[in-house]
Amino acid sequence: MRGLFIAITLMLAAAVTSPTIAKADAGLIVKSSPYSVPETLDRLEAIFKKKGLTVFTRIDHAAGAARVNMDLAPTQVLIFGNPKLGTPLMQSQPEVAIALPLKAVAWQDKAGKVWLGYTKPSVMASRFGITDRPGIIKKMTGALNKLTNAALKK
Asked: 57: part of which helix (H) or strand (E)?
């Protein structure tokens, strides 16, 4: 019985700490933003549109939470893509379509700091076993880095 108690205690401790582990292992690029959540994504959206990327929509999770009388710090997701890069990935592995179009998330932490994050293209490729498109993954990685840096520049 004591062994069972210890095992349950260890599992609960792991469950409590797993969000931190999951965040660290989520395969995200996370960058600090000097702007508010809406302004961060406004800037990113404008740059994406200027560069010819398709911006599909923006989801305001805090507004959704407010509609059900719950509080959530500012948190928004921008959904965007480039069919010239995404289509070949789907030709390689159709199931990667679940991860496409790409998403960028901006959120405000408990200290009031704003962050911008997105999935590393290499992590997405690895997750779906895409090994035949290294040039596209490299291009996506470079473009996302450059465009997000431009959006966050003061």
From this structure: strand 54-60
Q: How many CA atoms lie within 13 A of 30 on its CB side?
A: 13
Task: Return the sign of the alpha-carbon dihedral for residues 121, 126, 130, 132.
Answer: positive
Token pair for 132: 């035949």
Query: Could you read off the pLDDT of 30-49 as tens digits, one per residue?
Result: 999 999 999 999 999 999 99
Q: In what order do the strands lie in the sheet with 75-81?
A: 28-33, 114-119, 102-108, 75-81, 54-60
The domains of the chain, with CATH numbers, are: 27-152 (3.30.310.70)
DSSP code of residue 101: S
Q: How far apart are the C-alpha atoms of 108 and 36, rounded to whole Å? A: 8
pTM assigned to the model: 0.83
pLDDT of residue 128: 97
